[in-house]
Amino acid sequence: MPESRVQRRRRFLVCEPRHFAVQYAINPWMHPDNRVDAGLAQKQWRSLIRAYRSHGHTVESVEPVPGLPDMVFAANCAVTVDGRVFGSLFHAPERRPESTHYDTWFKASGFDVYRPESVCEGEGDLVPTGRYVLAGTGFRTTREAHREVQEFFGVPVIGLTLVDPYFYHLDTALFVLDDGPEENIAYYPEAFSPGSREVLRRLYPDAVLATREDAMAFGLNSVSDGLHVFIAPGATALADQLALRGYVPVPVDLSELHKAGGGIKCCTQEIRS
Asked: What is the pTM of this model?
């Protein structure tokens, strides 16, 4: 019998893809010569927001800014733990102005924002699990930023090395299924160095392991509330595994946003207060 799962209501910060486009290439998914349907991107994004709200989650928005086409990927702007906000310093110059607009939103909402000294891309590479912050490096966020995060939050930071450029952020290769007493994750092992795979195996012996096909379908760029998993519809084998474990997959198609290398989690910053 599948295990009984418990939903935890979440508070999410998002940004409408009003100005979404692929104007430059900073990861293998991005090809500026490929046509982007901005209207379809907005329609798909709105379906994600409806899915969150229909499942009881709170969704708040940052106003999109012309000239910042990747602002829709709110997860990269910061990471919050216990009401404390650790901001971002993007690797790509094209994205660095985004940080100011997100910082402004957080400050207006009553949060103090720590500005990192090292390159750090928020929840793209920093994944709070409950006990730890899992921290990716190899393509964007630096190991120096991992040290800053640990000093700021006082939470153990587990460094993980990414080795496949298609999984340039940790949140494209791993997501948290449950951050409660039954803390667990899903991940694609081959996205990580051998040592990092062993670390994950030791920490999460019961983790859900994804295939490359599901990972390439953005199946690991998912959001779980402990019961429902908002997941790319193409990640069918992963969804089946999750259902067998008592989770309820909620397919949401963000295929137009995949053209910039982002999916459900990339569009979703969780505010943990």
From this structure: 0.97
pLDDT digits (tens, 9 = 90+) for 79-124: 999 999 999 999 999 999 999 999 999 999 999 999 999 999 999 9
272: DSSP letter = -
Q: How far apart are CA 187 and CA 169, in angstroms?
A: 12
**At which residue do the structure tokens 């295939």 appear?**
211
Bridge partners of 84, per DSSP, are 81
Q: List residues with catalytic annotation.
A: 169, 266
Cβ atoms of residues 262 and 22 within 8 Å: no
The CA radius of gyration of the chain, in Å to the nearest whole number, is 17
Q: Which pLDDT tens digit goes with each residue over 142-179? A: 999 999 999 999 999 999 999 999 999 999 999 999 99
Q: What is the side-by-side order of every strand in the sheet holding 228-231?
A: 223-224, 228-231, 248-251
Pick the closest to residue 250 from 260, 268, 267, 235 (CA basis): 235
Place of tokens 């920093």: 126
Spatial contact of 30 and 262, defined as CB atoms under 8 Å apart? no
Q: What span, in angstroms and rounded, lies between the C-alpha atoms of 157 and 127? A: 9
Q: What are the residues whose beta carbons fall under 8 Å from the beta carbon of 202, sequence distance 6 or more?
A: none
H or E element in which residue 43 lies: helix 38-54
Phi, psi of 161 (to 5 degrees): -95, 120
| Residue 16: its H or E element | none
Angle at 14 between CA 111 and CA 253, to 5 degrees: 155
